[in-house]
Amino acid sequence: PHADLPERRGLRVLHGDVELGLTAVCYQAAGTGDPVAVPGSSGFLEIAVNGGSAAEDFGLAPGAVIDVRF
Predict the structure, then answer these.
(1) Beta strands in 1-64 (DSSP E)
(2) Are the C-beta atoms of 6 and 45 separated by less than 8 Å?
(3) Kind of pairing, strands 12-15 and 18-19?
(4) Whose CA is closest to 13, among 22, 26, 2, 24?
(5) By the 8 A CB rule, do 27 and 37 touch?
(6) How far apart are alpha carbons 29 and 70 in whole angstroms?
(7) In terms of Cα–Cα distance, which of 70, 18, 8, 10 is closest to 35?
(8) Sheet holding 12-15, edge to edge
(9) pTM of the prediction?
(10) pLDDT digits (tens, 9 = 90+) for 31-49
């Protein structure tokens, strides 16, 4: 289940060759301006930048293809 994602060591979230940050249970787990991947309440992995915009920083849009590697 997605609730287990933050505890998985070695989990990597990428868009192309760009690593999109740590996986955490909340956005505030990342420092201000840092990227983070958070399991959302609808079951999707949400990519964000704490206090910023993943869309602007990484050129992401809803439905963008990302890789999750264990």
Answers:
(1) 12-15, 18-19, 22-23, 35-39, 45-49
(2) no
(3) antiparallel
(4) 22
(5) no
(6) 20
(7) 18
(8) 18-19, 12-15, 67-69
(9) 0.74
(10) 999 999 888 888 888 999 9
